[in-house]
Every structure is written in structure tokens, then in C-alpha cells.
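Friendly challenge for the regulars: who can give me the C-alpha cells for this chain first? No prize, just bragging rights.
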Amino acid sequence: MSMRTAFFLTTVLLLATGMATAGVIGVSSVTGVPGSVVNVSITADQDVRNAAAIGFLFDARSVAPAGEPPLVIVDNVKLGSIWPSGSSATKPLLATNLGGATSKYPLGTIYIGIVASAPVSGPGEVCTVPVQIPPTARSGDVYTIVLTSVEVSDLNGRSIAAQGGRGTVTVQSPQAGKVTVGKASGQQGATAMVEISVDADVKGFTGFQAALKMDPALVVVPGSAEFGPLVPSSSSNLLVVNANTPGKPVVGAVVAKPLSGPGVVVRLPVVVPATAKPGTVYPVSLVSVQLSDANGQALPTPQMVDGSITVAQSQMAPGLITVKDAKGRVGQPVTVEVVANELVKGITGATLDLDFTSATPAAAPPISVANNGWAAGSMFPQGTLIAANVNTPGKALIGIAGPAAVSGPGQVALITFNIPRNAPKGAVYSVAVNAKVSINGADVPIQAVGGTITVIASRKKGDVNNDDVIGVSDATLALKVALKLLNVDAESFAAADLNGDGMISMGEVTQILRAALGLAQLPQS
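First reply, four minutes later:
Bragging rights claimed.
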């Protein structure tokens, strides 16, 4: 090889080595409002090639201006799209070590390590790291995130040159959002529940004040306002209503922890005039709304959306709700149907107030509702909610709320009762019911008829057809079941399975036939 050729090759190698660029594990820059959780994206650029393992320290301790509350890292890191998806066997392994008192890493950091069984190359997203902006952070605060201790290697464990990037989380002022008075309804002389809610753009507030305007004939019930579902229960929460001026109530609230919408903040009970005409609509307007954050600073004034109270019809809803009669065996559960007839129209829910304290004979031990023994009936669509209060012995209050209006005839609810083991055969338990149905947002009484539960004896061994007599037909059925020519329900199977071993043998069929002919007695357990 000539010196000229050697020099040329050496030059090419040096140039190639100089052109090799270290990859960058980068950090996205994001924005958010106080109290919100934002996802920071960790990425690999195009110079990260054939990586099978990536590890780094995510450091979020820097904030400007200094002294502002720290960013909170949420230990719920998710793999990014750069990694192949598939079964758990091929899914990359993700491990984290959140900094703090019990970690070797300082508070405000998290070490993240990812190992895969197949190499990947950038560009692409490595993972996402959720961080929470403190509720007391101020607009304009900037948190800087730096990746240090970056390690990248290939399938053979050889190191790949890479460096960590940096990004920012910038705090923005919350959007103004909307505060809305809902549309409520109530019968003459009854109470309508007016809800005041905020939308998703209302964030990070701890102080809430709303001045309303309504017809002076509408009376705010003193001392009965309550927080809505958006507000977690706390002894530090405070809710006050000034209803001294008719038609101009003012609601004020201070909560322990910052809240963000959407959700109902306050529910305000308002009594509808007894002389109001059904169908009358009373406007309920927002005059002013003030929101403040945990620092006592005023938040942007939200858009105000007015609501109303409609006077509902007070007469009975058309139709009939019926508890169907049922029979149940001693010591066994029995399911009772509650049905609506064809005159029940346009209901979105129902309230069933059941009383089953009465029995004949009066000394019969009480029945009870089975654990979770309630379900919405088939007339209601998927997504229907049902809840029950069974804390009072002998009574049950069941509420059903569906997503759409339905009409009868149909099944309203299924309720399962437990019959005591010492209940006497022939005992009859009465199941009385009072009912309301939800129509156009109002709960309207409806005619309801109760039913009964009659206790019958446990099925005799050998009585496969459940006619309370052991006959040749029972032996025939048992033979067909033994030969797998017939499927029967569990109770009939148990009647033919004389020894309780889960099988029906020819010997058991023979015993049933002999009992039918009066040649033998079957043991009864």
C-alpha cells in the first residue's frame, strides 16, 4: 500500500469518526394552569440508533422565579410510541425510582429505566412523565426539567453516545370558563334543587361567590344549601347563603383544597309557591360570580349562564307499578320482579319504597334483601344506575336513574330476598310498595301495588319434575339425564342426585323407580 493510499484511508476514517453525532434524549415543553396535571414527553431524536436500553434522571427541581412552590412528579410513567407494542412477553420493562426520603435520589427527581428485547431507533417518544403544577403556582412561573445521568445501550450492552435535553413547564392563567345555573323543576309547594356548576375551564379555585336573581315568590330554604359532588368532604369547608333579601340570594363558599371543573359546586334548595301554575317557568339568573385561588388572588371572571325552575305537574303519573307475587324455598334466595304496565310512558327512572315487615303468621322470622340483591329491570337501557338503602330492617329504598326515557310494559327492577332457614312452609310475606317515576326531571308519584312471597318446602329427593309427588315420570326424567339425553335445571338435577355426588347413576334411577312403586323410601336431607 502506498503512503498516499494509507493517508487517504486514514483521512476517511477520521472524518467518519468526527461525523458520528451523539443522540439526544429530549424533553418537551408544555404549559398548564395551577393545580393541573400535564404530561411531559421524553423523546429520542434521529441520532439515537439501535437502542435496547435507555435510562436517565428526570430532574424537575428548578423554578423561576426562585422560591415558588415545587413541581410534583406523579409516579405514573407510561411507555412511549417508539417501543413495539405486543404481548407482555415482548413489552419493554419500565422501572422508576421516585426521589424522596426513602430514595437515593433527591425530592423533585425520578430515575427512569427502560429495557427492551428488540432495538429501536429515533425519532420517537420514549415515555411520558406526568407532573402536577402546584395549585398555588403563579401565572408566568417556569419550571425547568433537565435529564441527567443519561445511559443508552444496544442489545449487547454496548454504550451508545447520547446526551440529555431540557424542557420547561410554564404556568398559564386559567381560562375564564363558565358558571352555570341548572334547569330544575318542582311541584307546587315542593322543593326544587337548583345546581350551580362550573365547566372544565374553571380551575384552581378555593373561593366561590355567586349572586343570583329570581322571583321573590321563590323561597330559598334557610340553612339547607349543600356542596355538590365536585367538593370533597372536609370539616374545613365553609358554605354560607344570605337569603335575607327575597329574590336575591348570595352564595359564598371557601374550600380546603383547590377545585377544578367540571362539576356541581353548590346545590340550593328553593321552595316553589303553592299557588304556582304547573308549567310556569321561573328564570334564575346569575348577577355576579367571583372566584379566587389559594393565595386569595382573584381568578378571571367566568361567563355566566342562567337557569330556571319549572313548576311540575303534581298529579299522579299515568300507569301502574306492580310487585309480582313469587314463591321461594326455605333457606333459599327468591327474586321478585317489579313491573310497569303499558300506561307508564316516558320515564327515566324510578324510586321504589318497599316495606316487607308484615308476614302471615306474624311470628314468621323476617326476610331480608340479599347482599347486592337489586338490579335495574330490562325496560331500562345499558348505562342505567341503581342504588339501594337497606339499612332499616324490613325496608328498602331503591333508586333507578337511566340515560334515556323508556315506556312500559316492562320490567322495572329485580329484587332478591333471602328466606330464613326457619321460615315455616306456607308463610306469606307481604311486600308493600310506594313508587315515584322520573318524568322530565321531576319525581312524580305513581300508583303502585305490592305483592307477596310464599314459602314452599324444599324439593323432595326424587321429585325431578317438581310436582311434589315421586312417580314413574320422575324415574324416566332421571334416566334421560343420566344418559345425557336431557338437560334440566340445577334444582331438578339435585332432586335426582340422591347421594349428592354431582352425578346421576343408574342405581339412583332404580331407587327413584322403586320409590315410585312404593317399594322403597328415599332418604330426605
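Residues 1-19 have pLDDT under 50 and may be disordered. The first strand starts at residue 23 and ends at 27. Your move, everyone else.
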